[in-house]
């Protein structure tokens, strides 16, 4: 295993107590404001996960190591967020059959339209499940990854169902928009 990946697997700061089932990666630390919402959902739903900056352009070798070893390490889904020329999700998908969920980060220059188009327009044969731009996309990526994990983990599926129920109940209990 390459040194950089060894650090990822053994580095305490990146690990929860269980073997990660979902990898959350992002092109830059500056993506964290957005990507934290995916991680928040994984935490709420009890999904073992790892978090790491992996840049398609600045650390391409790490990207290849990460994607190539993902399946063997037991990852069931990879959430990949990036902004601008957002090649990370597509390049990861090119190197693994683990499902990749792409989150377009809202860029300053073009409001995330560049990120969205970079991620969504994959050639047929190499899929990336592309989410909405920004916080909503990151949140939904966390929920979608939990659904994938839920097929193997009944506890995660139950947590996801409970989340949906409580969301519905919250809306029904507060249905009059004129009330503060
Ligand atoms: C992308 O470039 C990253 O995903 C980030 O959204 C964007 C800008 O990166 P920084 O210059 O802020 O590191 O690769």
UniProtKB/TrEMBL annotation:
Sample GO molecular function, one term: 5-(carboxyamino)imidazole ribonucleotide mutase activity
Residues the record lists as binding substrate: 28, 31, 58
Pathway assignment: Purine metabolism; IMP biosynthesis via de novo pathway; 5-amino-1-(5-phospho-D-ribosyl)imidazole-4-carboxylate from 5-amino-1-(5-phospho-D-ribosyl)imidazole (N5-CAIR route): step 2/2
The UniProt record lists the keyword Isomerase: yes
Biological processes, Gene Ontology terms: 'de novo' IMP biosynthetic process
Keywords recorded for this protein, A-Z: Isomerase, Purine biosynthesis
Catalytic activity: 5-carboxyamino-1-(5-phospho-D-ribosyl)imidazole + H(+) = 5-amino-1-(5-phospho-D-ribosyl)imidazole-4-carboxylate
Positions of the PurE domain: 20-171
Cited InterPro entries: PurE_ClassI, PurE_dom, PurE_prokaryotes
EC category name: isomerase
Keyword Chloroplast annotated: no
Enzyme Commission (EC) number: 5.4.99.18
NCBIfam families, A to Z: purE
PANTHER family per UniProt: PHOSPHORIBOSYLAMINOIMIDAZOLE CARBOXYLASE, PHOSPHORIBOSYLAMINOIMIDAZOLE CARBOXYLASE CATALYTIC SUBUNIT
Recorded family membership: Belongs to the AIR carboxylase family. Class I subfamily.
Function as written in the Swiss-Prot or TrEMBL entry: Catalyzes the conversion of N5-carboxyaminoimidazole ribonucleotide (N5-CAIR) to 4-carboxy-5-aminoimidazole ribonucleotide (CAIR).
Protein name: N5-carboxyaminoimidazole ribonucleotide mutase
The organism's taxonomic lineage, starting at the top: Bacteria, Pseudomonadati, Pseudomonadota, Gammaproteobacteria, Chromatiales
Gene: purE
